[in-house]
Amino acid sequence: GVTKKILVIPGDGIGQEVTAWGKKVLETIAANYKHTFTFDEGIMGHVAIEATGDPLPDSTLEKARQSDAILFGAIGHAKYDNDPTLKVRPEQGLLKIRKELGLYANLRPIKLFDDLLQASSIKPEILQGADILFFRELTGDVYFGEKNRSEDRNSASDLMIYHKYEVERIARKAYEAARTRRKKLCSVDKANVLEASRLWREVVQAIAKDYPDVETEHMFVDNAAMQLIKDPKRFDVVVTGNLFGDILTDEASQIAGSMGMLASASVGDSIGFYEPIHGSAHDIAGKGIANPLASVLSAALLLDISFGLKDESQRVIRAVDATLRQGYRTMDIANKHTPNEFVLGTDAMGAQVLKNLN
Ligand code: NAD
Ligand code: IPM
Ligand code: MN
């Protein structure tokens, strides 16, 4: 077996509730396959602000740098969402760790489990067979450009900026992935209006020449938002900027049935960082009803991408598949019109996955 150090950062709200299950899955895999995974825990977000005043304390960043992979939950608290004047905010911790660790490529696979065909609000025949891999650029764009507020406080701006090298490196990663899939790449931008998008399109067009075996398509983001719902099967790999990628993947979660099903991998210069795409979900936090599968599937991505443990990763995905086939659902993927469904809370659902792992 292999020996690895994993840093777990549960964060806030349902992050705490679901990450416990991603971690348990990693522990179970380690036991079953005779690997040695050692776990450390770090704080980030609202809990870290409460404890230290800093959404990403140096101690957490230091632990992150010393680990072989990171499993993250979610950050955020209603207090900040309701008060935009607060200067220190949980989200800053997440943005900072992505930047510090050079996590420029955020992979968000959108794949529907067979048994969830009825869980989505989209018609089954539109969904069946949809399989999309998003490459969301994660350390540039309007997220990291200069921010300004005028002295009279009556105007504000966030600079949308991309550098050629940033577009090149994410585009290459996306093309490499397309080569291993259905060899189609769709680059999404707003080049009809934005200069940053015109740079984006220019760079992708240039990189495309190195991948003649991959079919390239350029699409405006407004159209992409519509096509995703109209005909999700037309997409294979999608590469896009930080903001568009954020929005389009929440939309695309409906293709997989729920936000509670979507995992992600952030990779780049060094270690990998794995997290559900969802947030801390104040509306359901503390109720024990959040879907833990996005965290479980994030653990599966971690095993595959950071540790190269493909069999173990597939084993986790099969355990999720089996759990859904047995009819177990959390409330976000339940369908009252489908018989033989058992609606469970977070812990009972997690426990079923563990059972199917053994
Ligand atoms: P959210 O993703 O937290 O929730 C959106 C909706 O999806 C809610 O109705 C929620 O109940 C539901 N949902 C999300 N995850 C679920 C799960 N696992 N099981 C069942 N239902 C689930 O987005 P939001 O409400 O816009 O944001 C809440 C807070 O989370 C904010 O403070 C925001 O900044 C933060 N946020 C953090 C991250 C992150 O840490 N990566 C991502 C998005 C939002
Ligand atoms: C996500 C989140 C974050 C983002 C926020 C919380 C900073 O929405 O991970 O998708 O916008 O990247
Ligand atoms: Mn988001």
From TrEMBL:
Pathway: Amino-acid biosynthesis; L-leucine biosynthesis; L-leucine from 3-methyl-2-oxobutanoate: step 3/4. One of its GO terms (cellular component) is cytosol. Residues 5-353 form the Isopropylmalate dehydrogenase-like domain. It catalyses: (2R,3S)-3-isopropylmalate + NAD(+) = 4-methyl-2-oxopentanoate + CO2 + NADH. Its EC number is 1.1.1.85. Binds 1 Mg(2+) or Mn(2+) ion per subunit. Its main location: cytoplasm. One of its GO terms (molecular function) is NAD binding. NCBIfam families: leuB (TIGR00169). Catalyzes the oxidation of 3-carboxy-2-hydroxy-4-methylpentanoate (3-isopropylmalate) to 3-carboxy-4-methyl-2-oxopentanoate. The product decarboxylates to 4-methyl-2 oxopentanoate. This is 3-isopropylmalate dehydrogenase. The lineage of its organism: Bacteria, Pseudomonadati, Bacteroidota, Chitinophagia, Chitinophagales. The gene is leuB.
